[in-house]
Amino acid sequence: MDLGIKGKVALITGGSRGLGRQSALALAHEGVDVAICGRTERSLSSTVTEIKKLGVNSLGIIADVTESADIGSLHSEVCESLGAVDILVNNAGGSLSREDIEGTSLEDYKKTFDLNLFGGFELMKLVIPQMKENNWGRIINIASIYGREYGGNISYMSAKAALIAATKHSAISLAKDGILVNSIAPGSIEVPEGSWERFQNENSPDVVEGFISDNLPMGRFGWPEPLGDLVAFLASNRSGLITGSCIVIDGGQSISMI
Ligand SMILES: NC(=O)c1ccc[n+]([C@@H]2O[C@H](COP(=O)([O-])OP(=O)(O)OC[C@H]3O[C@@H](n4cnc5c(N)ncnc54)[C@H](OP(=O)(O)O)[C@@H]3O)[C@@H](O)[C@H]2O)c1
């Protein structure tokens, strides 16, 4: 299937490792020029090298999505070097604690929103004007099954739920402008140096087996390639009628029916 996005420009936050890296490679396979950001140089430069081997332009920028100043300079650097952003993937995110309301400080709660929501919100506001002018744009926000149903800790669940809500609201307000806005809700996907790899290293085989048998119907953790393919499809010209959706990719892990 030709996805019809060769020559477009994508920006993927947290694109140096994990699901962001996989999304970057999937878009590069489709001929998209890809900018990625992260906080550390080493993984950024090795992923940029991988992307360039696929024959597209790429740029790695050190930027922390929790810093407003970084967001502005990230956006202008991408526009200057690769051109206006056609495809934005707000992927940087994660969990900062494991607590319920009683164990969570307001400060940690806010920090989780900074990481999972506010940086992405600012980037959406920066890319929308040019997308509107082009009457074409794709925004994909990486949420979690725990933004749709109970699970994880209070801060992460709240921030991802808010990200899904912001996605839905933006999708409806931008639907007439050729801009599709969707979120993706992954289940537990194992990536190198990621949280599920750490979970397996830090717990006994019994605990890991127990988690898998209680939570993962496929009997294994998820793997990143299907998520990269989903990002590429949602970013493409073939997804024209999909906007405002939250697409679950979890091997049957979530309990919710909708
Ligand atoms: N993997 C899963 O099972 C799973 C499940 C549900 C949802 N998700 C969501 O999917 C997204 C990616 O998860 P992942 O498992 O691929 O994570 P990961 O392996 O920890 O990778 C995170 C990426 O984001 C970058 N990053 C982290 N903090 C950042 C910041 N403040 N500013 C800029 N970049 C930052 C990291 O690079 P640096 O460390 O160098 O900054 C790295 O490139 C997250 O939003 C996560 O909540 C993941």
Molecular structure report:
This protein starts with 8 loop residues before the first strand and ends in a 9-residue tail after the last strand. It folds into 2 domains: 9-189 and 227-247, Rossmann fold (3-Layer(aba) Sandwich); 196-223, no CATH class. The chain has a 7-stranded parallel beta sheet, with helices on both faces. The protein has helices at residues 18-29, 41-52, 68-81, 106-134, 154-174, 195-202, 205-215, 225-234, and strands at 9-13, 33-38, 58-62, 87-90, 137-142, 179-186, 246-249. The protein is α/β, with parallel strands linked by helices. Helix content is 45%, strand content 15%. The structure holds NADP nicotinamide-adenine-dinucleotide phosphate. NADP nicotinamide-adenine-dinucleotide phosphate binds next to helix 1, strand 2 and helix 6.
